[in-house]
Design goal:
The chain has three helices and three strands; from the N terminus they run H-E-E-E-H-H. It has about 130 residues and is α+β, with helices and mostly antiparallel strands. It starts with a helix and ends in a 12-residue tail after the last helix. InterPro entries: YbaB-like_sf, YbaB/EbfC.
């Protein structure tokens, strides 16, 4: 059981590390805006084609930026979900799965550490 537990933690940490530098982009339908996000959906780059300024509709521009950013974030979440799928219950769905791994990994790592016998350099000398 412990081996399975360790394999699960190792596998999930591997996915987290693999996706840490993931960058996903999405383009607005008109192709004038490209938003790039991290695996967590954080906006890290925004490219706006100068042709967008031909129409001074700031509300439309803001909506196009938000739409492209949301689409990039959704694409990133789908990629992370696909990579985590093998560790999830069979009935897990994209819409109901929390893809933030830290709240899951921290207690698991603490449990693994607590279950480890003290190594010679961690033992205190009582005798």
């Amino acid at each position: 059981m412990r081996d399975t537990y360790e394999e699960l933690v190792t596998g999930i940490e591997t996915v987290r590390n693999e996706t840490a530098d993931l960058r996903v982009s999405a383009e607005s339908p008109d192709g004038l805006i490209i938003a790039t996000v991290t695996s967590r959906g954080e906006l890290v780059d925004l490219a706006i084609d100068p042709r967008v300024y031909r129409s001074p509709a700031s509300t439309a521009l803001a909506e196009a930026i938000l739409d492209a950013t949301r689409q990039a974030a959704a694409n990133a979440r789908h990629l992370v979900f696909a990579r985590l799928r093998r560790f999830l219950p069979a009935d897990a769905t994209f819409s109901t799965t929390d893809l933030d791994l830290d709240p899951f990994l921290v207690p698991m790592n603490q449990a693994l550490s607590a279950d480890q016998p003290a190594s010679p350099d961690r033992r205190t000398e009582d005798t």
